[in-house]
Amino acid sequence: MTRLRVDGVPVDVCEGASLLDAVRAVGTELPTLCHDDRLRPAGSCRTCLVRADGRVTAACVTPAAPGTNVTTAQQDLRDLRRDAVELIVSALPPRALTAGRRSELAETCRTLGITLGKAAPETSGNRDDSHPYIELDRDLCIACGRCVRMCDDVQGTFALTLTGRGADTVVAPGTGGPWAQSDCVACGGCVDTCPTGAITHPGPGRGITTAQPQPEQVRTTCGYCGVGCALDVVVSGNQVSAVLPALDGPVNQGHACVKGRFSHGYLTSAERLAHPLVRKNGNLEPVGWEEALARVADGLRGAVAAGGPDAVAAISSARATNEENYLVQKFLRTVVGTNNVDNCSRLCHAPSAAGLSAAFGRAGGTDSFDDVEKADCFLVVGANPVEAHPVVGARLLQQALRGASLIVADPRRVGLAHQADIHLRPRPGTNVALFNGLAHVLVAEGMTDPDFLRDRAAGLDELVELLAQYPPARTAELTGVPAEDVTAAARLYGRARRPAILYGLGVTEHLHGTDGVRTLANLAILRGAVGDTGRGHGVTPLRGQNNVQGASDMGALPDMLPGYGRITDPDARARAEAVWGRTLPARPGLRIPEMFDAARRGSLRALWIIGEDVCATDPNSHQVADALDACPLVVVNELFLSETARHADVVLPVASWLEKDGTFVNFDRRFQRVRTAVRPPAAARTDFDITHAVAAAMGADLGCPTPAETLAECGRVAPVFAGISHERLDREGAVAWPCPAPDLPGEATLYTDAFSTLDGRAQLSAAPYLPPGEAPDAAYPLLLVTGRRWAHYNSGSMTRRGGNLHLEAGDHIDLHPLDATRLGVDDGTEVTVESRHGTARLVARLSEELSPGQVFCAFHFPESGVNALTSDHADTVTDCPEYKVTAVRLTPGAV
Ligand SMILES: Nc1nc2c(c(=O)[nH]1)N[C@H]1C(S)=C(S)[C@@H](COP(=O)(O)OP(=O)(O)OC[C@H]3O[C@@H](n4cnc5c(=O)[nH]c(N)nc54)[C@H](O)[C@@H]3O)O[C@H]1N2
Ligand SMILES: Nc1nc2c(c(=O)[nH]1)N[C@H]1C(S)=C(S)[C@@H](COP(=O)(O)OP(=O)(O)OC[C@H]3O[C@@H](n4cnc5c(=O)[nH]c(N)nc54)[C@H](O)[C@@H]3O)O[C@H]1N2
Ligand SMILES: [Mo]
Fold it and tell me: What is the superkingdom listed in this entry's lineage (predicted)?
């Protein structure tokens, strides 16, 4: 702590604080037009002048030295500050300060009593409104550089620059052309920091920024990806006018991405479902809730009568809240009497849950993301956070720019790879060989932690024996990664002081995804870099959906009760039975692909799909559609008439994340609150209410009248959540699980004393490399990897309905220029892609980010049919589809 005096008042500030921090600490406000707490100080606007030990200085750039006497209130200082603001305003047209203008500058002028007296003449036309979410009015730019620093220092996109000279300096996209064609990824950082309204978001939210809290503002957690950004939703008349990143958001810290910040246009889309639909004479027709619920209840009863409780199954939603997922699995287990419940974790990080449980004992990441600040080396594997988890991607990028070493393992030159010390490019499907190769070098060169391995790990001898087969040269043959890169990457990870591993679907969505997770975990165990040893930050899966961790935590899994009690474990069942007052079926239920098999065979007679567009996003989609068509009752809870809803017998209109109350669990196991910002359309209801209503129509009462009471009940079934409640989250913001008691902090870092495995040790895995399920051949010579693009989200149901469509209007397939030339394909032209399973139509995009022989596409536009291409091959342990490896051929034009 540093002690100094501000206007005579003693004040203590932290090491590294500025005079501005000290002045604010005593409650004095200064104008700060070029300053934002999220950014490096610039000291250019001279509006925060103070006197420090007699010398006039800009408070924002002057370090708070011990004993300094700071004064702020003398008239000459007031005049200097006022002159500085007046000078800035005098160069702006009157609209900078028109009545009702929401901006920091307008606010400052109102406070200082500065009016338009000396303003420059009104101008017009110097605008760039090419972008759907960001508008630039160059005449209002004061060249404070906040937007540029936000783009560089927080987002890491470097899309903006200051151009021109002297008083004519203004911000511009670095590429020179219109904003829409720049490198901007619409994180909204520049909009949020701009103090004058030069950069704004068009529409009712224009000019609202985090600097000016609004009367109707609701704190919630983003409902897109699993990062768990805390957002403040500004509401006016049941409409969202702006969504602002919360400055105190534990993961996002005042940052957001295009999805959370701007992609809420879907809320008011004309296509939004507003009434239940029931199939009559082959057509889906609008009906009242009573009729729809009666149809569901009759269908469920009929299915049970014909095939017993196991003739019913549900796919619960990783987009929905914990409380909704808890209720859905409780309904299946206690009202229907089956364990047939699963969620999209099956398609995503089920291998993480299996692999991390086997290695360490629990089904989540081992450490807190806060540790990025302490890590000095990142191994990022099969993940593209710059596009898929942009806020995480940006924080990793900043750490790399500050000197942390970065190893990226991805077949493609993804965003982070541009900043990597080493980019390993394994052939898709060869991770296990790569990780074994890295482990070989760690062992061979003595970069392991013998004490940790002796005291806290098991399985070393077996692993060392296996690793003999993976010297760098053989690893290079198996993976295509040069031997010297394998060695160099192992040394970088092996010699780091505090290395951290983060990974994504490039590890899990493979035939041997669980082996991939386990052999990756080996690296952290060999180094003793897990288990709170102070020598590293473990292994973190960048989980996908907003609440995929939570959906699984809540027991929406065929073999697990809430809190991961095994359904086959009599003690776990007994605990749930005591709370629920019912005997539970002991046999594990069906996994998602098994549900479709059972439907095609005729043994599954009712399937309730809650927020998953299985016909678009599950693999081998023609077979999925066949399964739905074969199933006598398909009920779909949806926001839109998705591909899946089109195959349903009953479609129930639902509320989305901005329209409901509950909690989500993010990728590093933090529970956070979700709060209702606006009402859903017409007759749409929450999944929570619908589950209750279906139970009631079946004559059952699920208890749990409110989301808060539901989480409380869940804590009684699952002791690991017992310390977490809505009331506590309202107070504390976020709490990580495990958290067994209200007076204990959540365990953000796991395994401090022991691992949660049977013997308390981390388990090394001696898994040999086995080839992927599909391999290219003469007929299908290219290897297709599927994954994500920054502007759209999964099935695209929400991001295709709003401004994001202007950012990316369709799916395209990236291919190397050498392949394009060979195949006669031009950039931007239509191509037909065929696999052994189906056909898709896409637009070609030439890209050197891929190796020749490999192609890449996303699956955000169902009409392009990408999942008609993907196969039924799936992880041998968890059934997670092998989305990352499909052999295809490509022909120019539409066939
Ligand atoms: N914008 C956007 N964000 C999203 C989503 C979205 O659809 N759009 N979806 C969300 C969801 S549900 C999820 S699960 C996450 C997913 O987030 P990520 O896991 O980052 O997503 P992907 O792009 O599917 O795959 C990651 C990378 O794996 C690489 N890869 C493929 N095969 C291999 C391999 O064999 N070895 C290695 N080392 N790498 C390989 C691919 O080239 C790709 O770059 O994103 C979430 N966030
Ligand atoms: N080829 C290929 N396919 C993939 C992948 C891949 O990498 N490659 N990745 C896979 C992965 S990781 C995942 S997670 C899946 C994701 O696949 P899905 O889960 O199918 O995708 P989403 O678009 O996230 O959401 C599903 C539906 O939920 C609806 N929805 C949104 N919020 C709510 C809500 O609160 N309640 C209800 N009831 N509905 C809601 C949306 O309108 C949408 O139609 O895709 C998988 N498919
Ligand atoms: Mo996912």
Answer: Bacteria
Say which CATH number the domain at 6 has.
3.10.20.740
Asked whether residue 333 falls in the same domain as residue 367, the answer is: no
171 three-state secondary structure: strand
Which of 14-28, 107-121, 217-231, 879-893 has the least mean pLDDT?
Answer: 107-121
What CATH number is associated with residue 220? 3.30.70.20
- In the reported structure, the alpha carbon of residue 645 is separated from the centroid of ligand 2 by a whole-number distance in angstroms of 13
Give residue 45's domain range.
2-90
What would the 3-class secondary structure string for 77-90 be? HHHHHHHHHHHHHH
User: What whole-number distance in Å separates Cα of residue 298 and Cα of residue 307?
Assistant: 14
Predicted pLDDT of residue 117: 64
| Ligand (nearest to CA of 800) | 2
Q: Count the domains in the chain.
A: 5
The full DSSP string for 274-304 is -S-EEEETTEEEE--HHHHHHHHHHHHHHHH
> Token pair of 95, please?
């609209």
- Quick: pLDDT tens for 791-825: 999 999 999 999 999 999 999 999 999 999 999 99
Residue the block writes with tokens 């209109």: 653
Residues 33 and 162 in one domain: no
Q: Let me know whether 225 and 366 are in one domain.
A: no
What 3 state SS string does 396-424 have? HHHHHHCCCEEEEECCCCCHHHHHCCEEE
Could you identify the residue written with the tokens 């200064």? 30
Statement: residue 508 has pLDDT above 80 = yes
Under 8 Å between Cβ of 199 and 134 = yes
Do residues 498 and 370 touch, judged by C-beta distance below 8 A?
A: no
Reported as a pLDDT band with limits 50, 70 and 90, residue 581 is very high
pLDDT at 120 over 70: no
What does the pLDDT read at residue 211?
85
- Name the pLDDT band for 540 (thresholds 50, 70, 90): very high
In this structure, is the dihedral angle defined by the CA atoms of residues 667, 673, 677 and 680, taken in order, positive or negative?
Answer: positive
> Residue 879: CA atoms inside 13 Å, Cβ hemisphere, count?
17
- Is residue 540 one of the residues assigned to a domain? no
pLDDT of residue 119: 57
Check whether 118 has a pLDDT greater than 80.
no
Q: Indicate if the pLDDT at residue 106 is higher than 90.
A: yes
pTM above 0.70, yes or no: yes
**Same domain assignment for residues 403 and 460:** yes
pLDDT band at 115 (very low <50, low <70, confident <90, very high): confident
In this structure, the dihedral spanned by the alpha carbons of residues 150, 153, 157 and 158, taken in order and rounded to 10 degrees, is 80
Which 8-state DSSP code applies to residue 138? G
The residues, ordered by sequence, that sit 6+ positions from 303 with a Cβ below 8 Å of its Cβ are 311, 312, 605, 606, 632, 633
Do 456 and 761 contact (CB within 8 A), yes or no? yes
d(CA 840, CA 835): 9
746 lies in some domain: no
Q: pLDDT band at 100, cuts 50/70/90?
A: confident
> Is residue 44 one of the residues assigned to a domain?
yes
Nearest CA to ligand 1 atom 40: 506
Shared domain for 204 and 289, answered yes or no, is no
Q: Return the pLDDT at 616.
A: 98
Instruction: Identify the H or E element spanning 473.
Output: helix 472-479
Question: What whole-number distance in Å separates Cα of residue 448 and Cα of residue 529?
Answer: 10
Beta strand pairing call for 405-409 and 377-381 = parallel
Name the amino acid, one letter, at 868. Answer: A
What value does the mean pLDDT of the chain take? Answer: 96
Task: Give residues (CB < 6 A) around ligand 2.
Answer: 317, 319-320, 344, 347-348, 505, 509, 544-545, 610-613, 617, 637-640, 642, 654, 656-657, 687, 786-787, 793-795, 797-798, 859, 866-867, 870, 883
Question: In terms of domains, do 691 and 554 share one?
Answer: yes
Residues 246 and 233: their CA atoms lie apart, in Å, by 10
Residue pair 123/198 in contact by the 8 Å Cβ criterion:
no
Residue 350 in this model has a pLDDT that exceeds 80: yes
